[in-house]
Each structure stands twice: as structure tokens, then as C-alpha cells.
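Preliminary data (for renewal application), 6-O-phosphono-beta-D-glucopyranose complex.
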Amino acid sequence: MIKAIIFDLDGVIVSTDDLHYKSWKHMADREHIFFNEKINDRLRGVSRMASLEIILEQSTKTYSDEEKIELAAYKNDYYKELLNSLTKDHILPGVMDVLKTLKEKQFKVAIGSSSRNAKFILKQIGLFDYFDAISDGTNIKHSKPAPDVFLIAAEKLNIEPTFCLVVEDAISGIEAASRAQMSSFGVGDAKTSKLATYTSSDIRDLLKYI
Ligand code: BG6
Ligand code: MG
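Predicted structure:
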């Protein structure tokens, strides 16, 4: 029996992929590092510092830890500038229908996101107060595919992990849900994950399974 739905944020509630891409590209161009959309796809669900490591695979230069921190901060400053233009119009299709129905049916809803900007994004799109719990990049040591972010969300909701269903667009996020013993609903990229319990290109289909 499902009692709670834990939503990933980037790529599920709101489309920030392109903003992440533009911001990493801004950093990569400054450093003369090759970066394209295909590499950007590998960053989905991955924490900021782990994303940087993936990008630096293309670099011949070895960066010190201090330099890496500066590169990540340079990217994030640019990203946060772009996030300033985010509004509720950027909420992905079907999301509000699903959230409203879940509230009516008295499911608990939470956010389980690797992003350290999750709360800022939720405020920008007017959904900060909508969720019963928020677990994000600021409260985890290990990012997806580790189960931590979802286990903490379940703990904050006070609901057993096996009663939770995760909605994800990242393959690493579906693996994290599986490792947390939660069922999952994969959209976008995550539709191809063999570990996903359910998949669809339309988030509204989630309502068929709960
Ligand atoms: C995830 C995104 O939600 O958050 C990743 O899918 C991103 O692409 C990660 O790297 C960390 O985001 P932030 O906002 O903390 O840099
Ligand atoms: Mg995502």
C-alpha cells in the first residue's frame, strides 16, 4: 500500500536541465573543456561535485580541491542567476493535476532531490509550502544512486520506506529508490530503467498505480 509519494525536483516538477547545461557550459568554456548535451545527460540526479568530476574527465589539466570548489561555485553563481527567472510557468505539464489529486486523496507528498538549490527553486515556482517534507542536497552525504535522500524524506514524513513511491527522471534516482526499498515511477530518461516499477511519458499516469 502506498501512503506517500516522493518527487525528484529537477526534470520531474520543473525543467532545469537546460539551465544546468548552460551554467556548466559557461564554466567549461572558460576552462576550455569540451562539454556537450550528451555529457550533460550523465549529470542527471548526480550531485554538484560529482557532476564536476564527470566534466573534468574531458580536461587534461589536474585541478586542486580548492580549484574544484571555485569551478563549482562559478557554475552555481551563474545557475542561480538563471534560476531568478524561474516562475510557476516552468512547472512541468501534469504536475499540478497530480499534486492536487494526491492532496485530495490524502497522500503525503515530499521532495527527494540531490540539489542544494531545491528550496530556492521551490520558492521560485511557488511550491515551497506544498510539500509535507523536503529532503535535498543539503541533508545528504551520498547522492543518488545511494538511497539516502529518499530514506531521509521517508523519515521526515514518518512513513516506512516500503509505503513510499518515488517519481524520478534520472536512472540513478530509480536505482536509489530501489535501494531504499521503495517502488518507483520513471519519466523522461528513467523510462528506460529496468529497475523502475512503472514508467510513462505522462506523469498523470502515476494516478493509475496508487
Ligand atoms: C539534481 C540534478 O537534481 O541536482 C543534477 O539532476 C544536479 O543535474 C544536482 O547536478 C545538484 O544540483 P545543485 O543545484 O545542488 O547544483
Ligand atoms: Mg531529476
